[in-house]
């Protein structure tokens, strides 16, 4: 880069129609440099405008003027004959007129001495000697001097055009990301993940020539896709082919493996049409070409090992130095194929507050009178970015009283958008694993792992493999002292699963715990054969058990009535006075 400063920037919410406008002299650069630059920008999903009209008139068209006005970054390719075109110079004047905050001019000196542009000497001086319109000439000179004094790129300092284009595109990406971080589908919630991104980059060993695959693992809504997207945006410039494939599990179900794989391979090859019908993909010419390319691949939301096989084969599809990143909720889905696995953690409290306030107050400061209720929302979300953003957006513009009401409602009815994402992991469990998850969510949080395994084994469950599955799917954690833990939002999801079994008749649910409904049910002898668990901890009113209270609860396998009739300090066994207890009860 040249040493002089670039055009000014400061925060602005303005969004333009085009990311980049390229101004160039067609006869010098259209069929080589500009064509390669344009293709590279398009592969990076940067919306780029170039004028393909080869039959230009004397005056610049209205459509071109509008395209200039609607662009964020203007790349000016100063070449040998640029100054001989009045059209190019009119474009340049218009660009200079549009320069303001949050827009950038990037001059590129392509096979031309920057001083010739800056001072209108050499071929530029010769061109200006031929221009007749003095008024325009003065404007053109001012525009040339002003843009040539900006920080730019000199082709003579690079070995070849590929290196120069990589540098220019990297500069553009950096400017766009800094300018509109919230525009990217990956960037929302980037607060607090810089350290995690750096740790993953370390695992990726970018400079190594090995082909490596990295897994990003964590519970639903924790930010795996956001982190993978940020890494992709940052590193994609270093690779010859790139593809970020979102929602792999869902897209495979919708479109099928063949169609999605063809789209994937097409993206890696820069948009070239690919149609492979044979199951023996390795033998095709497409794969042989990819084996010579250094690529970056992100497969988002992988739920099964076979899904990896669809897109990456046996690691043999890509060239040396390639990197594959897979995000997943299920560690077992990737563990046999990846070289490293990174677990994404919840955001810290201060980071969570930043994410939440960005949505709830649209970037404005947190009002003092909202601080207490805001902290209650943060406690509820417990560091999960999805919950922070969903709740922040929902509460935006609402009064403090409405916030209080919303929190009260959340205790009874969890947010649907949050639950929908979290429940995907639960729905992937088999019947026994679901039972174990629901038991932990309702009453076994805080138990030691060994104690829990003994209890589950007594129920006839395969405790070891069941707990391992829940751990691999990030549905539970084991703390450092071997205590079972579960994120509050996941526990709430478990409670809601049981609540949905029968909304209006709790006696028809499988599990009852710590509620006035449970006390009412026991006091009124309303038990049914659906009930498997009754769990009342300390602090609830004493219930009056009748001799036949449990007679109809033939599935009851867990009964805990702490400090209730016949149980607690000075009390006897809960079976005292009862006619019978279910055979399943242990």
UniProtKB/TrEMBL annotation:
Gene Ontology molecular-function annotations: ADP binding; NAD+ nucleosidase activity, cyclic ADP-ribose generating
Assigned EC number: 3.2.2.6
Domain TIR: 16-176
Reaction catalyzed: NAD(+) + H2O = ADP-D-ribose + nicotinamide + H(+)
Keywords: Hydrolase, Leucine-rich repeat, NAD, Plant defense, Repeat
Cross-referenced InterPro entries: Apaf_helical, Disease_R_plants, NB-ARC, P-loop_NTPase, TIR_dom, Toll_tir_struct_dom_sf, WH_DNA-bd_sf, WHD_ROQ1-like
Top-rank lineage group of the source organism: Eukaryota
Identification of the protein by name: ADP-ribosyl cyclase/cyclic ADP-ribose hydrolase
Organism expressing this protein natively: Quillaja saponaria (Soap bark tree)
């Amino acid at each position: 880069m040249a040493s002089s400063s670039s055009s000014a920037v400061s925060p602005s919410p303005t969004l333009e129609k085009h990311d980049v406008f390229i101004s160039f002299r067609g006869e010098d650069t259209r069929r080589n440099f500009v064509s390669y630059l344009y293709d590279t920008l398009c592969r990076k999903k940067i919306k780029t405008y170039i004028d393909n009209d080869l039959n230009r008139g004397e005056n610049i068209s209205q459509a071109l003027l509008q395209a200039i006005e609607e662009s964020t970054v203007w790349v000016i390719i100063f070449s040998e004959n640029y100054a001989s075109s009045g059209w190019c110079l009119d474009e340049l004047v218009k660009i200079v007129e549009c320069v303001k905050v949050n827009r950038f001019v990037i001059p590129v000196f392509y096979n031309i001495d920057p001083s010739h542009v800056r001072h209108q000497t050499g071929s530029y001086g010769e061109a200006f000697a031929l221009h007749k319109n003095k008024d325009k000439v003065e404007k053109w000179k001012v525009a040339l001097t002003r843009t040539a004094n900006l920080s730019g790129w000199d082709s003579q300092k690079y070995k070849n055009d590929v290196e120069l284009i990589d540098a220019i595109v990297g500069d553009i990406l950096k400017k766009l990301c800094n300018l509109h971080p919230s525009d990217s589908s990956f960037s929302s919630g980037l607060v607090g993940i810089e350290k995690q991104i750096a740790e993953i980059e370390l695992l990726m060993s970018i400079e190594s020539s090995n082909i490596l695959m990295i897994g990003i693992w964590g519970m639903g809504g924790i930010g795996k896709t956001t982190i993978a997207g940020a890494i992709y945006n940052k590193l994609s410039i270093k690779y010859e082919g790139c593809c970020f494939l979102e929602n792999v599990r869902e897209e495979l179900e919708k479109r099928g493996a063949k169609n999605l794989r063809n789209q994937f391979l097409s993206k890696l090859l820069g948009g070239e049409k690919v149609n492979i019908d044979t199951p023996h993909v390795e033998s095709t010419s497409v794969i042989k070409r990819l084996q010579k390319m250094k690529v970056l691949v992100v497969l988002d939301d992988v739920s099964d090992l076979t899904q990896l096989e669809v897109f990456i084969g046996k690691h043999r599809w890509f060239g040396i130095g390639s990197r594959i990143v897979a995000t997943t909720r299920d560690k077992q889905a990737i563990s046999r194929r990846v070289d490293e696995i990174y677990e994404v953690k919840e955001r810290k409290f201060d980071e969570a507050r930043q994410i939440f306030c960005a949505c709830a107050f649209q970037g404005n400061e947190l009002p003092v009178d909202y601080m207490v209720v805001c902290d209650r929302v943060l406690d509820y979300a417990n560091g999960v970015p999805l919950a922070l953003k969903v709740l922040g957006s929902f509460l935006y513009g609402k009064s403090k009283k409405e916030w209080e009401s919303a929190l009260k409602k959340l205790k009874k009815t969890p947010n649907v958008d949050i639950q929908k994402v979290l429940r995907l992991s639960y729905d992937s469990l088999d019947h026994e694993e679901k039972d174990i998850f629901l038991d932990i969510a309702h009453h076994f949080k805080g138990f030691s792992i060994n104690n829990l395994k003994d209890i589950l084994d007594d129920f006839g469950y395969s405790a070891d493999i069941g707990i391992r599955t829940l751990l691999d799917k990030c549905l539970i954690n084991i703390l450092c002292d071997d205590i079972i833990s579960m994120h509050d939002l996941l526990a709430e999801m478990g409670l809601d699963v049981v609540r949905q079994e029968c909304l209006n008749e709790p006696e028809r649910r499988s599990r009852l715990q710590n509620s006035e409904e449970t006390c009412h049910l026991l006091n009124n002898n309303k038990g049914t054969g659906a009930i498997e668990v009754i769990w009342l901890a300390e602090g609830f009113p004493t219930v009056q058990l009748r001799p036949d209270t449990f007679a109809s609860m033939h599935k009851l396998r867990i009964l805990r009535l702490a400090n209730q009739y016949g149980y607690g300090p000075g009390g006897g066994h809960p079976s005292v006075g009862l006619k019978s207890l279910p055979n399943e009860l242990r």
